[in-house]
Amino acid sequence: MPKRKRMMMTGALIFAMAALIAWGAFERRDQSFARLQRANVIHIGYAVEAPFAFLEAGDVTGAFPEIAKRVANALGIARIEWMQADFDALIPALEAGRIDVIAAGLFITQERAQRVAFSEPVIRVQQSLLVQKGNPRGLHSYQAAATRADVSIAVIAGAVEETILRQIGVPDAQIIVVPDALTGHVAVKSGMVDGLALSAPTIRWMALRSPLTSTEVAAPFEQPDLPFFKKIGYAAFAIRQTDRRLLSAWNRAQSDLMKEGDYLALLTAFGFDETELPENITTKELSM
Fold first, then answer.
1. Contacting residues for 53 by C-beta, under 8 A, at least 6 apart
2. Residue pLDDT, tens place only, 178-196
3. Cα 56 to the center of its chain, rounded Å
4. pTM of this structure
5. Rounded CA separation 55/64 (Å)
6. 46-74 pLDDT per residue, tens
7. Which domains are seen in the chain, by residue range?
């Protein structure tokens, strides 16, 4: 073997060994899970968007908080301190260290995966559209707003629906950003906007808890026709990228929970059904 080639192979081997040593040192320094165990408390952030997360009689509940409560218990962490925030403020709060986990039905996207570490997905949901009673504008897809300049659609700030509308080609002037689902619902009822783009479970929950007398779900509804949409709608918990040990422990406990017989019952209590259980797909595949 030529001397130059031997030197190159030796250099590559040394680099690989150094990388492994550095990673091992990082893993040893990662006290994210141990720190929470010692403190016996975990800080979890959420945004009000039922049925993913909301307040009821002063208690934080919803599909994601209830899953989080069971996971925290399985991890041996007795106390949860909740922090409510606007949806688009949750990732900055996580990055700043004010919370340890986001439990808000956050969809896994490539963009978000550059900022947070996602758990494995716990549900997969479809898109929907809330419109005025009788659907006077005849809206049956998000694409309709891209072809009609007189149609305006509300989206929750920081939610994936805003990205979908922009990808479809809806002009910025027709996308009305609101802070939460309740504000969007009011905007549709009052006629300020023609529709509210939301996940199907959120709109089903609105109808379940408070009959939609002046609004309704657009039906039929055509799902967005986008290449990346097949990976959209998988929701998970979010953890800081540096907290690898916490992520690993969380995923183990979450996986055990999802294998339990009452996991589906936990979800159906909040309006989800078996069709919204995640398929056999990983967060890594969804983030690529």
1. 46, 47, 60, 61, 62, 63, 64, 65, 103, 104, 105
2. 999 889 999 999 999 999 9
3. 21
4. 0.81
5. 12
6. 999 999 999 999 999 999 999 999 999 99
7. 32-123+233-287 (3.40.190.10), 127-229 (3.40.190.10)
